[in-house]
């Protein structure tokens, strides 16, 4: 049995350059929202990579291009309450720490998620993201071939009309309610047809290719399905936030972002040891849906 492949396409009413800053600003904000009570995000490394330092393997290639420089990050996610209950029952203490290594060579980014201390080679999530100025109609922007292409499922995420779980919904994160005065953008239409994706200007698409491998006898299909459902939920929520937060980062530069990331790292280190668990917590209902 081999990894499961799913390609999520998230269409956004913004420029590719705007999303570059917005993604990083929003990741910093979301990390704070997911950290507390002994759980959350720990940033180990955040520095540039090139052909000598933090070299990615295999090479970073997408959209007919090769990328050799960018920003490398290594994070640990402390996740005890953020996995389904049946995994918490089976996994030993300390096994629910997930490592994330990412090579951001925008507009391309590769993220590798693993559990080296417990699952080792039996678990990984590889997310390859390519950001293009189109509305999600490029048929194979990641250049897939063979089995990966034949088994790939394509899922378009509609940030305006896809159903958001009640526990995730906030009016201030609803792009059908929130405008961006700084950018001169109106709220998106709630029309359930998704036609806005063909008409909005500017427009871009995040093509997120997700490969999931979870080798655990009797649980592989269930866990891979659960992981992909969680990824879809996270992609929907996160990109709704990116659009609604546009005014917060609209005038920021990459230098501003690097300063913000340094500040957030210190805040996360403090926040992780205090207060209550925050953010996306797995529930029994999540277990049932996996």
Automatic annotation (TrEMBL):
Native species: Candidula unifasciata
Pfam families on file: IP_trans (PF02121)
PANTHER family tied to this protein: PHOSPHATIDYLINOSITOL TRANSFER PROTEIN (PTHR10658), VIBRATOR, ISOFORM B (PTHR10658:SF11)
GO molecular function: phosphatidylcholine binding; phosphatidylcholine transporter activity; phosphatidylinositol binding; phosphatidylinositol transfer activity
Full protein name: Phosphatidylinositol transfer protein N-terminal domain-containing protein
One annotated Gene Ontology cellular component of this protein: cytoplasm
InterPro entries for this protein: PI_transfer, PI_transfer_N, START-like_dom_sf
Signal peptide residue numbers: none
Region (Disordered): 267-290
Domain Phosphatidylinositol transfer protein N-terminal, chain residue ranges per copy: 5-266
SUPFAM superfamilies named among the record's database cross-references: Bet v1-like
Taxonomic superkingdom: Eukaryota
């Amino acid at each position: 049995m081999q990894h499961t492949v799913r390609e999520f396409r998230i269409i956004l009413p913004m420029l590719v350059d705007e999303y570059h800053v917005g993604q990083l600003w929003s990741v910093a904000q979301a990390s704070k929202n997911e950290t507390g009570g002994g759980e959350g995000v720990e940033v180990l490394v955040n520095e540039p990579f090139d052909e000598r330092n933090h070299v990615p393997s295999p090479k970073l290639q997408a959209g007919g291009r090769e990328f050799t420089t960018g920003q490398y990050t290594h994070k640990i996610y402390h996740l005890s309450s953020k996995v389904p209950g049946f995994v918490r029952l089976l996994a030993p203490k300390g096994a629910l720490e997930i490592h994330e290594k990412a090579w951001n060579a925008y507009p391309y980014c590769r993220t590798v998620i693993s559990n080296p201390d417990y699952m080792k080679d039996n678990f990984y999530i590889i997310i390859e993201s390519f950001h293009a100025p189109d509305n999600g109609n490029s048929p194979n922007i990641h250049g897939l071939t063979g089995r990966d292409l034949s088994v790939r499922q394509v899922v378009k995420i509609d940030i305006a009309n896809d159903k958001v779980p009640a526990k995730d919904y906030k009016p201030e994160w609803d792009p059908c309610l929130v405008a961006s005065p700084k950018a001169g953008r109106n709220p998106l239409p709630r029309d359930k047809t998704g036609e806005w994706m063909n008409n909005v200007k500017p427009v871009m698409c995040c093509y997120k290719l997700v490969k999931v491998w979870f080798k655990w006898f009797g649980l592989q299909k269930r866990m891979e399905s659960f992981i992909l459902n969680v990824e879809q939920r996270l992609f929907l929520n996160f990109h709704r936030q990116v659009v609604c937060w546009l005014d917060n980062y609209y005038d920021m530069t990459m230098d501003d972002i690097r300063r913000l990331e340094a500040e957030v790292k210190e805040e996360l280190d403090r926040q992780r040891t205090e207060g209550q668990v925050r953010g996306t917590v797995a529930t029994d209902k999540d277990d049932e849906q996996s």
